[in-house]
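Course assignment 3, question 2. Fill in each field.
Student: A.L.
Task: Predict the tertiary structure for the chain below.
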Amino acid sequence: MKLLYPWIIAAGVVVLLVLSVFGRRAKAAYKEGKKVANTDFIEETELYQKLKRQYHIFSAMALFSLFMAIFCGFVLLSRPAKVEQVNTELRNRDIFLCMDISSSVDELNVELCEELKEVVKQLDGERFGITIFNAKSVLLVPLTDDYEYVIETLDKLLASLKLSIKLTESDDIWDDDIDWELYDYKYEGTLSEEGSSLIGDGLASCLYNFSDLTENSERSRMIIFTTDNELNGTPFVTLEEATKLCKKNKVKVFAIAPENVVDEDIFQSGVESTGGKFYKSTSSRVFDELIDDIEETETSKMNKVETFIYDQPQIVFLCMVIFMGLYFVLSRKVKL
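Answer field:
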């Protein structure tokens, strides 16, 4: 047990000393009062001597109980508590999923979401986030170590992607059983009349969702990027500019593209310039390779020290109640 405010004990000792001084003065004033005459005979009797001894014993015990009760009160004010420091080693790495949600990438995204759910379950201290983009970028999950929430979002995104594929292949899109709210989930906030699949804008937006990007440059960061690189519109940031920004901020990009990827050589060159890697979904082991490369990426470690304070007033409070009870019982015996 530790006292969080030990200086209160010192103040309590001073108060007790002051009380004892005033108690002595009061006793001295009582001794100088009027005396009863001819008490010698009574004082010599055995009963008187017995009562006198009892009086001194009970008086001393009562005063001791009073002082201890006051002292326990000061101990309570000093806040007795148990202080624990927990040193946790965290893996100092951030991972963002940056997903092009145009229909041409739906099937690739479905496979990736299913694989990433297993990856997220194995994370320990790393932070994971999700952004999706088309003409605009939307932050679905900010960087977090709440893996249950990440998996719930991946499940909902997965369901929306599967519904999108179903409607693309279906002859009757006006089926009453269709959950249009779920269908719109992957499109909500990403559509614009300015165009679609603005690749560079999506990657750059994801990059600046990393927290402490410039303040903590030693933190390991990566982006898992899916797109077919089919640009439809005029972006604010080109893919080349976006990959240069990633390289400048030491963020590695691991990109997965479907079979029909536009300007594959340029796309691959830009991705690999960040220190990441380019994959094509035509490979039978594309997701295994991606996961292996993610796990092999350097992860810096940091120690997180947390202090937990557990108040423990029970024992001291019980002692104070006991001493107060003793004082009242003993003081009645001696009529203090």
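Instructor remarks: Residues 46 and 52 are 10 Å apart (CA to CA). The mean pLDDT is 83.
Grade: pending
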